[in-house]
């Protein structure tokens, strides 16, 4: 126990298990290789989040080695997993949690089709009903930014604030997704790769047909109503 009070301890323990398990989904859908990529989740009722350790094999990820951080990305000492460094993208996740209070989960992957679009700095156009439903329009591109300070987080927040899309393609890097919880952010990470692949394939055949704005809006509205 780390002195947070019993209710918070239970919440943190549940989130550790959820975040650890969700990493298996990244592998299941082929979104990551080696130790790249990361999932985090905000602790309900506290200025804390849980994220994976850096450089640890996916096979070894477990609730007890997930790392608890404050919203500045500083590891909470004396908690399980605190002996390791948190994922190298921790500062970006922390920036998002600090600046987007509605966000409860953040995911980053190097899923190959989405990375390919990111290398071109080209938004993925909304040319399927699946893209309209999940992203409500094109999937935007964020600025080029390197790891080390708040630049990646700022790029995510600046691009996604007020945008329907829960996904941004950070230029020359890859997709970051957000959601009300970690599972939703993982779902968007899966769907952004699916969109990137489908539109890439469509372009091999010619120029995809755009969806009329009113039809796109209606599809998004319906999907938002049905969304769990
Ligand atoms: O793209 C990057 C770095 O921005 C990440 O995907 C890292 O590859 C994550 O690795 P860990 O530090 O989490 O092991």
UniProtKB/TrEMBL annotation:
InterPro entries: Aldolase_class_II_sugar_metab, Aldolase_II/adducin_N, Aldolase_II/adducin_N_sf. One of its GO terms (cellular component) is cytosol. GO terms for biological process: pentose catabolic process. It catalyses: L-ribulose 5-phosphate = D-xylulose 5-phosphate. It holds the Pfam family Aldolase_II. Its cofactor is Zn(2+). Its EC number is 5.1.3.4. This is L-ribulose-5-phosphate 4-epimerase. Belongs to the aldolase class II family. AraD/FucA subfamily. One of its GO terms (molecular function) is L-ribulose-phosphate 4-epimerase activity. The keyword Nucleotide-binding does not apply. Keywords: Metal-binding, Zinc. Residues 17-200 form the Class II aldolase/adducin N-terminal domain.
